[in-house]
Amino acid sequence: MDCLAEIPRAPLDRRPRKRQRLGWDVGPEIDQIQTGLCGQEVANAISAVTLGLLSSGFASSQETKKLPRFASPPLREDDKEGHFVFAVGDNLTSRYRFNAKMGEGTFGQVLECWDRECKEMVAIKIIRGIKKYRDAAMIEIGMIEQLGKYDKSRSSCVQIRNWFDYRNHICIVCEKLGPSLYDFLRKNNYRSFPIALVREVAKQLLECIAFMHELRLIHTDLKPENILLVSPEYIKVPDYKVSSRSPKEGSYYKRLPKSSAIKVIDFGSTTYDQHDQTYVVSTRHYRAPEVILGLGWSYPCDIWSVGCILVELCTVC
């Protein structure tokens, strides 16, 4: 099962956006400390004890090397917004090791981690340790598992590989994918895609939405940020539409993805089709008229969003 990651906006974003336990989380050296100390104090206490033993001759450099190789890092307090605090090189259970931060959003963070079992890099979405975000994460996991149960042809809906609860944070593991369509456009100075590429994206996107609608599921939040390219690789081609009056370094070339393969992510707002659904859904730029007017919405709201996305891919400048 796979899951995807949501990449936050960078300073160049010119459009306003709006978005709505297991027993392996404590290492053996911390397990033995039964005090009310915070994570940093525990780490300091362990360091002080270790130094004392070394200076007293009770421990040697050889003995310190016998510490568990895959032990969990010291307990750390979450930041003031409930985000998980980590350090590159730390372990996330004995299976995963933090390698880099890929992005951060309202939901939490997406981290690149090394999977020791599969011997590859994966993306892990670590949800903020706040009840409403944990609840939303469990809804998303349920929806993705429901999709994976019936998705025999491996459509463009992302699937999670694994999930677990680590120190009050829901962690969702998925394959490491490329950038979102929006992030690719932003880094490409908002230049349009060729029609042939837009056509390939449209085909996959519509197949994914048709599959969801057959299961009576409505995504409700389709937008370029929630569509990820499978591969991060790209090529540079001449851009003949650039004005010669205001040339910039590298502006005569634009990027094009090497592969048109995509994955739809973020099923936290996905819902089953019901009657009288009048609450507001979708990000403003991709919101259907019936949603804006409060007339009640259903499957067509997803199709409207798809249309907005395709027009944007063709016409951004």
Q: Your description of this structure?
A:
By secondary structure, the chain is α+β, with helices and mostly antiparallel strands. The chain folds into three domains: 1-27 and 68-176, Phosphorylase Kinase, domain 1; 28-64; 181-315, Transferase(Phosphotransferase) domain 1 (Transferase(Phosphotransferase), domain 1, Orthogonal Bundle). The chain is 29% helix and 19% strand. The protein has helices at residues 28-31, 39-56, 61-64, 131-150, 181-187, 195-214, 289-292, 300-315; strands at residues 91-92, 96-104, 108-115, 120-127, 162-166, 169-175, 217-218, 227-229, 234-238, 253-257, 262-264, 271-272. The chain has a six-stranded antiparallel β-sheet, covered by helices on one side. Strands 7-12 form a two-stranded antiparallel ribbon. A hairpin with a 2-residue loop joins strand 5 and strand 6. Helix 6 (195-214) packs antiparallel against helix 8 (300-315). 30% of the residues are buried. The model is unreliable at 1-13, 18-43 and 45-67 (pLDDT under 50). It comes from Zizania palustris (Northern wild rice). InterPro entries: CLK_kinases (IPR051175), Prot_kinase_dom (IPR000719), Ser/Thr_kinase_AS (IPR008271). Keywords: ATP-binding, Kinase, Nucleotide-binding, Serine/threonine-protein kinase, Transferase.
